[in-house]
Amino acid sequence: MAVLERHLTLYKRLWRASLFSSFLLPLLFLVSIGLGVGGYVGTVEGVSYVEWIVPGVLASTAFQMAVGECTYSVLGEFKWTRGAHAMFATRVSAWDMVRGWMLYIVFRVEVAAVVFLAVVAAFGVLASPWAAVTLVVVGLLAVAVAAPVSAFSASIDHDSYFALLFRFVMIPSTLFAGVFFPVEQLPALVRPLAYASPLWHGVELCRAATLGVAPPWPVWVHGGYLLAFGVAGLWWAAFSFRKRLQD
Protein backbone atom coordinates (compact mmCIF):
# COMPACT_ATOMS: atom_id res chain seq x y z
CA MET A 1 0.00 0.00 0.00
CA ALA A 2 2.95 2.34 0.61
CA VAL A 3 4.13 1.72 -2.96
CA LEU A 4 0.64 2.44 -4.28
CA GLU A 5 0.51 5.63 -2.24
CA ARG A 6 3.82 6.75 -3.72
CA HIS A 7 2.61 6.24 -7.29
CA LEU A 8 -0.68 8.00 -6.57
CA THR A 9 1.19 10.95 -5.08
CA LEU A 10 3.28 11.23 -8.24
CA TYR A 11 0.19 10.88 -10.42
CA LYS A 12 -1.56 13.64 -8.49
CA ARG A 13 1.15 16.00 -9.72
CA LEU A 14 1.34 14.67 -13.28
CA TRP A 15 -2.26 13.66 -14.13
CA ARG A 16 -2.79 16.52 -16.59
CA ALA A 17 -0.22 14.98 -18.91
CA SER A 18 -2.38 11.84 -19.26
CA LEU A 19 -5.70 13.56 -19.98
CA PHE A 20 -5.48 13.23 -23.75
CA SER A 21 -4.19 9.65 -24.01
CA SER A 22 -6.31 8.24 -21.18
CA PHE A 23 -9.63 10.01 -21.67
CA LEU A 24 -9.95 12.13 -24.82
CA LEU A 25 -8.15 9.93 -27.35
CA PRO A 26 -10.37 6.83 -26.87
CA LEU A 27 -13.51 8.97 -27.23
CA LEU A 28 -12.20 10.75 -30.31
CA PHE A 29 -11.19 7.39 -31.73
CA LEU A 30 -14.65 6.00 -31.07
CA VAL A 31 -16.32 8.96 -32.79
CA SER A 32 -14.07 8.90 -35.85
CA ILE A 33 -14.02 5.13 -36.38
CA GLY A 34 -17.25 4.01 -34.73
CA LEU A 35 -19.50 6.72 -36.12
CA GLY A 36 -17.51 7.92 -39.13
CA VAL A 37 -16.39 4.62 -40.61
CA GLY A 38 -19.37 2.89 -39.06
CA GLY A 39 -21.65 4.86 -41.35
CA TYR A 40 -20.12 3.00 -44.29
CA VAL A 41 -19.75 -0.38 -42.57
CA GLY A 42 -23.33 -0.59 -41.32
CA THR A 43 -23.78 -3.62 -39.07
CA VAL A 44 -21.42 -6.32 -37.85
CA GLU A 45 -22.74 -9.59 -36.48
CA GLY A 46 -26.26 -8.14 -36.33
CA VAL A 47 -25.48 -4.93 -34.40
CA SER A 48 -24.45 -1.45 -35.46
CA TYR A 49 -20.73 -0.98 -35.95
CA VAL A 50 -20.48 1.63 -33.20
CA GLU A 51 -22.05 -0.79 -30.67
CA TRP A 52 -19.75 -3.53 -31.90
CA ILE A 53 -16.57 -1.45 -31.65
CA VAL A 54 -17.22 0.17 -28.22
CA PRO A 55 -15.98 -2.86 -26.19
CA GLY A 56 -13.01 -3.21 -28.52
CA VAL A 57 -11.95 0.39 -27.96
CA LEU A 58 -12.47 -0.03 -24.21
CA ALA A 59 -10.30 -3.16 -24.03
CA SER A 60 -7.63 -1.78 -26.37
CA THR A 61 -7.43 1.39 -24.27
CA ALA A 62 -6.73 -0.71 -21.17
CA PHE A 63 -4.22 -2.76 -23.14
CA GLN A 64 -2.34 0.26 -24.48
CA MET A 65 -2.35 2.03 -21.12
CA ALA A 66 -0.91 -1.05 -19.44
CA VAL A 67 1.83 -1.39 -22.05
CA GLY A 68 2.65 2.31 -22.15
CA GLU A 69 2.77 2.82 -18.40
CA CYS A 70 5.00 -0.20 -17.84
CA THR A 71 7.81 0.64 -20.25
CA TYR A 72 9.73 3.87 -19.63
CA SER A 73 8.30 4.33 -16.15
CA VAL A 74 9.54 0.94 -14.96
CA LEU A 75 12.94 1.16 -16.65
CA GLY A 76 13.36 4.68 -15.29
CA GLU A 77 12.81 3.50 -11.72
CA PHE A 78 15.83 1.24 -12.06
CA LYS A 79 18.13 3.13 -14.43
CA TRP A 80 17.43 6.86 -14.26
CA THR A 81 15.63 7.96 -11.10
CA ARG A 82 16.74 4.94 -9.01
CA GLY A 83 13.40 5.10 -7.23
CA ALA A 84 13.23 1.31 -7.02
CA HIS A 85 16.59 1.20 -5.25
CA ALA A 86 15.42 3.84 -2.79
CA MET A 87 12.34 1.78 -1.98
CA PHE A 88 14.40 -1.39 -1.70
CA ALA A 89 16.63 0.32 0.89
CA THR A 90 13.61 0.47 3.19
CA ARG A 91 11.37 -2.38 4.33
CA VAL A 92 9.78 -2.57 0.86
CA SER A 93 10.56 -5.81 -0.99
CA ALA A 94 10.62 -6.47 -4.72
CA TRP A 95 7.29 -8.31 -4.40
CA ASP A 96 5.81 -5.28 -2.63
CA MET A 97 6.95 -3.08 -5.52
CA VAL A 98 5.32 -5.36 -8.08
CA ARG A 99 2.01 -5.57 -6.22
CA GLY A 100 1.89 -1.85 -5.51
CA TRP A 101 2.66 -1.07 -9.15
CA MET A 102 -0.05 -3.44 -10.37
CA LEU A 103 -2.60 -1.80 -8.07
CA TYR A 104 -1.65 1.57 -9.51
CA ILE A 105 -2.04 0.33 -13.09
CA VAL A 106 -5.45 -1.15 -12.29
CA PHE A 107 -6.46 2.16 -10.70
CA ARG A 108 -5.43 4.10 -13.81
CA VAL A 109 -7.23 1.71 -16.13
CA GLU A 110 -10.41 1.58 -14.04
CA VAL A 111 -10.70 5.38 -13.87
CA ALA A 112 -10.33 5.64 -17.66
CA ALA A 113 -12.85 2.80 -18.16
CA VAL A 114 -15.46 4.40 -15.88
CA VAL A 115 -15.21 7.72 -17.74
CA PHE A 116 -15.41 5.96 -21.11
CA LEU A 117 -18.44 3.88 -20.12
CA ALA A 118 -20.22 6.90 -18.68
CA VAL A 119 -19.81 8.86 -21.91
CA VAL A 120 -20.91 6.05 -24.26
CA ALA A 121 -23.82 5.19 -21.95
CA ALA A 122 -25.00 8.81 -22.20
CA PHE A 123 -25.21 8.33 -25.97
CA GLY A 124 -27.19 5.10 -25.58
CA VAL A 125 -24.52 2.90 -27.14
CA LEU A 126 -24.45 0.24 -24.40
CA ALA A 127 -27.01 -2.46 -25.13
CA SER A 128 -26.91 -4.41 -21.86
CA PRO A 129 -26.63 -3.72 -18.12
CA TRP A 130 -23.94 -6.41 -18.10
CA ALA A 131 -21.64 -3.67 -19.42
CA ALA A 132 -20.65 -3.02 -15.79
CA VAL A 133 -18.80 -6.35 -15.85
CA THR A 134 -16.32 -4.83 -18.28
CA LEU A 135 -14.72 -3.05 -15.33
CA VAL A 136 -13.68 -6.44 -13.96
CA VAL A 137 -12.48 -7.57 -17.38
CA VAL A 138 -10.30 -4.53 -18.08
CA GLY A 139 -8.77 -4.80 -14.60
CA LEU A 140 -7.83 -8.43 -15.24
CA LEU A 141 -6.59 -7.56 -18.73
CA ALA A 142 -4.47 -4.73 -17.32
CA VAL A 143 -2.66 -7.07 -14.92
CA ALA A 144 -2.27 -9.75 -17.60
CA VAL A 145 -0.49 -7.20 -19.79
CA ALA A 146 1.22 -4.94 -17.26
CA ALA A 147 2.91 -7.74 -15.29
CA PRO A 148 4.94 -9.28 -18.17
CA VAL A 149 5.69 -5.87 -19.71
CA SER A 150 6.98 -4.63 -16.35
CA ALA A 151 9.14 -7.74 -16.08
CA PHE A 152 10.52 -7.11 -19.56
CA SER A 153 11.22 -3.44 -18.76
CA ALA A 154 13.04 -4.36 -15.57
CA SER A 155 15.28 -6.83 -17.39
CA ILE A 156 16.63 -4.57 -20.16
CA ASP A 157 19.32 -1.89 -20.07
CA HIS A 158 18.32 0.31 -23.01
CA ASP A 159 15.01 1.87 -24.01
CA SER A 160 15.55 1.05 -27.70
CA TYR A 161 13.96 -2.33 -27.00
CA PHE A 162 10.65 -0.59 -26.45
CA ALA A 163 10.46 0.23 -30.16
CA LEU A 164 10.42 -3.50 -30.85
CA LEU A 165 7.74 -4.03 -28.22
CA PHE A 166 5.51 -1.33 -29.70
CA ARG A 167 6.10 -2.34 -33.30
CA PHE A 168 5.85 -6.11 -33.07
CA VAL A 169 3.55 -6.64 -30.07
CA MET A 170 1.35 -3.66 -29.19
CA ILE A 171 0.41 -2.44 -32.68
CA PRO A 172 -0.24 -5.91 -34.23
CA SER A 173 -2.25 -6.93 -31.17
CA THR A 174 -4.38 -3.82 -31.42
CA LEU A 175 -4.99 -4.26 -35.14
CA PHE A 176 -5.63 -8.02 -35.25
CA ALA A 177 -7.28 -8.90 -31.92
CA GLY A 178 -10.88 -8.33 -32.94
CA VAL A 179 -11.02 -4.64 -32.02
CA PHE A 180 -11.99 -3.35 -35.47
CA PHE A 181 -13.20 -6.45 -37.29
CA PRO A 182 -14.03 -10.08 -36.41
CA VAL A 183 -11.00 -12.32 -36.07
CA GLU A 184 -12.81 -14.85 -38.28
CA GLN A 185 -12.02 -12.60 -41.25
CA LEU A 186 -8.31 -13.26 -40.79
CA PRO A 187 -6.65 -16.12 -42.70
CA ALA A 188 -6.85 -19.39 -40.80
CA LEU A 189 -3.06 -19.52 -40.55
CA VAL A 190 -2.91 -16.16 -38.71
CA ARG A 191 -5.92 -16.65 -36.44
CA PRO A 192 -4.05 -18.60 -33.69
CA LEU A 193 -1.80 -15.55 -33.19
CA ALA A 194 -4.88 -13.47 -32.44
CA TYR A 195 -6.17 -16.10 -30.03
CA ALA A 196 -2.81 -16.05 -28.22
CA SER A 197 -3.13 -12.35 -27.47
CA PRO A 198 -4.59 -11.41 -24.07
CA LEU A 199 -6.26 -8.48 -25.80
CA TRP A 200 -8.47 -10.75 -27.91
CA HIS A 201 -9.78 -12.49 -24.80
CA GLY A 202 -10.40 -9.12 -23.15
CA VAL A 203 -12.19 -7.79 -26.23
CA GLU A 204 -14.46 -10.82 -26.49
CA LEU A 205 -15.41 -10.70 -22.80
CA CYS A 206 -16.10 -6.96 -22.99
CA ARG A 207 -18.13 -7.39 -26.18
CA ALA A 208 -20.19 -10.18 -24.67
CA ALA A 209 -20.91 -7.97 -21.65
CA THR A 210 -21.84 -4.79 -23.53
CA LEU A 211 -24.03 -6.66 -26.03
CA GLY A 212 -25.50 -9.11 -23.53
CA VAL A 213 -24.49 -12.18 -25.53
CA ALA A 214 -22.31 -15.22 -24.92
CA PRO A 215 -18.62 -14.96 -25.90
CA PRO A 216 -17.26 -17.26 -28.65
CA TRP A 217 -15.45 -19.40 -26.07
CA PRO A 218 -16.70 -20.21 -22.54
CA VAL A 219 -16.23 -17.35 -20.08
CA TRP A 220 -13.98 -19.46 -17.87
CA VAL A 221 -11.61 -20.11 -20.79
CA HIS A 222 -11.22 -16.41 -21.60
CA GLY A 223 -10.96 -15.47 -17.93
CA GLY A 224 -8.65 -18.37 -17.12
CA TYR A 225 -6.32 -17.40 -19.96
CA LEU A 226 -6.05 -13.82 -18.69
CA LEU A 227 -5.58 -15.05 -15.12
CA ALA A 228 -2.82 -17.46 -16.15
CA PHE A 229 -1.12 -14.72 -18.13
CA GLY A 230 -1.30 -12.42 -15.11
CA VAL A 231 0.02 -14.99 -12.63
CA ALA A 232 2.94 -15.91 -14.90
CA GLY A 233 3.65 -12.23 -15.49
CA LEU A 234 3.62 -11.46 -11.76
CA TRP A 235 6.11 -14.25 -11.08
CA TRP A 236 8.37 -13.00 -13.89
CA ALA A 237 8.07 -9.40 -12.70
CA ALA A 238 8.97 -10.31 -9.10
CA PHE A 239 11.97 -12.29 -10.36
CA SER A 240 13.12 -9.48 -12.68
CA PHE A 241 12.70 -6.77 -10.04
CA ARG A 242 14.60 -8.79 -7.45
CA LYS A 243 17.43 -9.68 -9.84
CA ARG A 244 17.78 -6.08 -11.04
CA LEU A 245 17.91 -4.76 -7.49
CA GLN A 246 20.48 -7.33 -6.40
CA ASP A 247 22.66 -6.59 -9.42
Explain the overall architecture:
With 247 residues, the chain is an all-alpha fold. The chain has one domain. The protein is 75% helix and 2% strand. The protein has helices at 2-14, 19-41, 49-69, 72-79, 83-88, 94-122, 134-154, 161-176, 191-196, 198-211, 219-246; strands at residues 43-44, 47-48. Strands 1-2 form a two-stranded antiparallel ribbon. Helix 2 runs antiparallel to helix 3 (49-69) and helix 6 crosses helix 11. The protein is globular and about 55 Å long.
SSE layout and pairing:
Layout: H1 2-14, H2 19-41, E1 43-44, E2 47-48, H3 49-69, H4 72-79, H5 83-88, H6 94-122, H7 134-154, H8 161-176, H9 191-196, H10 198-211, H11 219-246
Antiparallel strand pairs: 1-2
Helix pairs in contact: 1-6, 2-3, 2-6, 3-6, 3-7, 3-10, 6-7, 6-11, 7-10, 7-11, 10-11
Tell me briefly what this model is:
This protein has 247 residues and is mostly helical.
Overall average residue pLDDT: 89
- Record field, number of beta strands: 2
SS field, number of helical segments:
11
Please provide the ordered H/E string of secondary-structure elements.
HHEEHHHHHHHHH
Order of strands across the main sheet: 1-2
Query: Sheet with the most strands?
Result: 2 strands, antiparallel
Feature tags:
11 helices; 2 strands; 2% strand; globular; transmembrane; transmembrane helix; ABC2_TM; Nod_factor_ABC_transporter
